[in-house]
Design brief:
Blueprint lengths: L2 H27 L7 H12 L4 E2 H8 L3 H13 L3 E5 L7 E5 L1 H22 L4 H19 L4
Antiparallel strand pairs: 1-3, 2-3
Amino acid sequence: MDELSSRLNNLIVGTFNSILKVEEDMVKSISKYNLTIAEIHLIEQVGLLNEKGTISELAAALKVSLPTITVAVNKMVAKKYLIKEKNPQDTRSIHISLTELGKKINRVHSGFHKKMISDLSEGMTLKEKELLIIGIGKIQAYFDNIKH
C-alpha cells in the first residue's frame, strides 16, 4: 500500500471507529431508555417515513429482511416506542408510527446529529463543505455497492 493509500485507510478506519464511539456515548447518555443504537436508528427511520410507513417500507429503508424488521418492530412496540396499526383500506398492510416516548427519543437523536454537523462544519468554507460531501458520498457509494 502506498503512503497516500495508507493515510486514506487510516483516516477511514479511524473515522469509522470515532463515529461508533460517539454514537455509543450518545446511547449511554439516554441509557435510562434501554435502547441500542440499532433501535434508535429504527426509531429515526420511522420518523423519516412520516410516522405512517409500512413494515415493508421500513425494511427496504433499513436494508433488512421483512422477518428481521418484524421482530425488531414487535420488540419496540413491547418497549412502548412504536405503534402498529392495520391500514383500514388494506388490512394486509401494517403502518408503524412513533409513540410520544418514541418521538422524544427521535428528537434527542436528531438534536445530536444537528449539533454534530454544526460542530463539524464550523469554520469550513462552502467549498470545503462541498468537497467533503463529494468525498463522503463516494465512500458511501463504495460501501453501499459492496456485495456481502
